[in-house]
Design goal:
Elements lengths: L1 E10 L2 E11 L3 E6 L6 H8 L7 E6 L10 H4 E4 L11 H12 L3 H10 L15 H13 L5 E5 L7 H16 L3 E5 L3 H7 L2 E6 L2 E7 H8 L3 E5 L3 H8 L5 E6 L2 E5 L3 H10 L6 E4 L4 H9 L11 H11 L1
Parallel strand pairs: 3-7, 3-8, 5-6, 6-7
Antiparallel strand pairs: 1-2, 1-4, 8-9, 10-12, 10-13, 11-12
Helix pairs in contact: 3-4, 4-5, 8-11
The protein binds adenosine-5'-triphosphate.
Pfam family, one: ABC_tran
InterPro entries: AAA+_ATPase, ABC_transporter-like_ATP-bd, P-loop_NTPase
GO molecular function: ATP binding; ATP hydrolysis activity
Length: 314
């Protein structure tokens, strides 16, 4: 369990993290989302005792990182910067870490197997691909069998196989009752991996809720209906509190009625339906809508955002 209370970090004039309070709970994967420069890495570094808060506190299992007698056994981390000596083999790197932390040698072989590095463990880490390097980083994080894992952009640059592998691994670790805290800009992947989201913008907390709630909140109550008798259906459904847009000859977008109500009305008037789809936002759409004002480094607005904006204002 990770608990931040009023966590704040100032670098000169820059307030990188601004009074963050949140709890990352065990038994689930929590996604940490936010635009570039929102303060995610700074927050993760403070959790790991690599940066000192200007004010506020952050604890892992009730104590700050520095107060733990055996911190590696409490929390394992994969941060963006790789800190592995390139001339060492993966096995020697893990053996050196294990020796320093008083971890038995057999555990090194266990984690090598867990991350699928058995074949390559004696090769120099410097010769590894990005994906293999990430596996070494994850093996290091898992070495002391910690209850809490913190991973900053673990899927960055990985191929689809590697991305899928990390997803399955993290979900499995959460199912074992561990706390898994993960940052990523890859929204489609985050949607598949995380059960809960914490969203920050300009150092501040924007959301702390379940993935399902976050997406549902951003979903419009539009229902897309396709019918060869679209005009007849529109006339039938029209009424107070109902808005209907004819988006194509055979397609309506209806707001103000549930798909059950539309289906029942259509059936009673013997109108044929080809499609009846409630519109659900994607995580990316929900995230974009929330963080639009919190983006520090913005490129021109992409077509995806425009599409969503017109969908919600239509
Ligand atoms: N050591 C530092 N000295 C000065 N400013 C810093 C330092 N570390 C981070 N910052 C600033 O603090 C803000 C938050 O940075 P941080 O790296 O935590 O954001 P982030 O959410 O992890 O971004 P990204 O998604 O790009 O990794 C940024 O404006 C950054 O420039």
């Amino acid at each position: 369990m990770i608990e931040a209370r009023g966590l704040t970090k100032r670098y000169g004039d820059k307030l990188a993290v601004d009074g963050l309070s949140f709890t990352v709970r065990p038994g689930m994967v929590t996604g940490f989302l936010g635009p570039n420069g929102a303060g995610k890495s700074t927050t993760m570094r403070m959790i790991l005792g690599l940066d000192v808060p200007t004010s506020g506190t952050v604890t892992v299992n009730g104590r700050s990182y520095a107060e733990h007698a055996r911190p590696l056994h409490e929390v394992g981390a994969l941060l963006e910067a790789r800190a592995v000596h390139p001339g060492r083999s993966a096995r020697n790197h893990l053996l050196a870490m294990a020796a320093t932390a008083g971890i038995r040698r057999a555990r090194v072989e266990e984690v090598i197997d867990m991350v699928g590095l058995a074949e390559a463990a004696d090769r120099r880490v410097g010769s590894f691909s990005l994906g293999m390097g990430q596996r070494v980083g994850i093996a290091s994080a898992l070495l002391a069998d910690p209850d809490t894992l913190i991973l900053d952009e673990p899927v960055n640059g990985l191929d689809p196989d590697g991305v899928r592998w990390i997803r399955i691994l993290l979900k499995g670790l959460a199912d074992e009752g561990r706390t898994v805290f993960l940052s990523s800009h890859l929204m489609s992947e985050m949607a598949l991996t995380a059960d809960h989201v914490i969203v920050v913008g300009r150092g501040r907390l924007l959301r702390d809720q379940s993935m399902a709630e976050f997406i549902a909140e951003a979903s419009t109550n539009l229902v897309k209906v396709r019918s060869p008798q679209a005009a007849q259906l529109a006339a039938l459904l029209g009424g107070a509190g109902v808005t209907i847009h004819n988006v194509a000859e055979d397609t309506l977008e209806v707001a103000g009625l549930t798909n059950e109500q539309i289906g029942t009305s259509a059936a009673s008037a013997q109108i044929t339906l080809y499609e009846l789809t409630p519109a659900a936002a994607s995580l990316e759409e929900a995230y974009m809508a929330l963080t639009q004002d919190a983006v520090t480094y913005r490129s021109s607005v992409g077509p995806q955002v425009r599409e969503f904006e017109s969908a919600v204002t239509a």
